[in-house]
Specification:
Layout (H helix, E strand, L loop, with lengths): L3 E5 L3 H13 L3 E5 L2 H10 L4 E5 L7 H14 L7 E5 L4 H9 L4 E4 L4 H12 L1
Parallel strand pairs: 1-2, 1-3, 3-4, 4-5
Length: 124
Amino acid sequence: MAKKILVVDDEELIIRSLKKLLEKNGFVVFVAKRGQDALVMVEEEDFDLIIADIRMPGINGVEAIRGIYEILENRKLKKIPAIFITGYVDQKIEKEAKLLKPVAYIYKPFDIEELVGKVKEILG
């Protein structure tokens, strides 16, 4: 069964690129363009990995992952591994993100093939 990945990002280029390459590599990709949408999607679907941009309007990626982990904890489900991607370097937010113990923290611009390689490594 194909692994399911939730991409949470508001940048259309990143979404299209990740979706295309991840699907080409056999993953099923779901997209949330806002953190709020990701919270709803996690209630409806089981994911194997989340790739979240940190800087987004409304609920940022860190808040979205924190909220997702609270939902999973309340439902007594295991944490979904998360990869944070960001072009935004803010010490406070970076510290908050790292407290959530992401499996990777990747700075933009990044090589999309390298990210896909990282995903394959994480999901086996």
